[in-house]
Design brief:
The chain has 110 residues and is α+β, with helices and mostly antiparallel strands. It has 4 helices and 4 strands. α1 crosses α2.
Length: 110
């Protein structure tokens, strides 16, 4: 208990506790916001999905490499990235970064 009091009494201790609390709050927000970014239309009967990830800006090499962790990037257009073969279980992980605006099924046909 005296250790906690000494941490709370010091300015550095309060700053560290505040930074840790802010980081944990940010992570919680990212986790809670991810499911709302998923568009309806993903069916559970298929184990993998082809998706279109929309960003608020044109994607760069970093974003393409990031999404290659989850599937094959088949192209980009404007502010979207096409990713094929993404496991259904990974959809929320794809939607989790703050710079992802929307994840929806890739339109089929031509």
């Amino acid at each position: 208990m005296t250790l906690l009091r000494s941490i709370l009494a010091s300015t550095k201790g309060r700053i560290v506790i505040g930074a840790v609390a802010a980081y944990l709050g940010w992570q919680l927000w990212l986790t809670l916001a991810a499911p709302q970014k998923l568009a309806p239309g993903f069916t559970a009967e298929r184990p993998r999905a082809n998706i279109l990830v929309t960003l608020p800006f044109p994607p760069e090499r970093f974003h393409v490499l990031y999404f290659q962790r989850y599937g094959r990037v088949s192209g980009t257009q404007d502010s979207s990235i096409e990713v094929r073969g993404v496991r259904q279980a990974d959809l929320t992980a794809v939607a989790r970064p703050y710079w992802v605006r929307r994840v929806e099924p890739l339109p089929t046909g031509g």
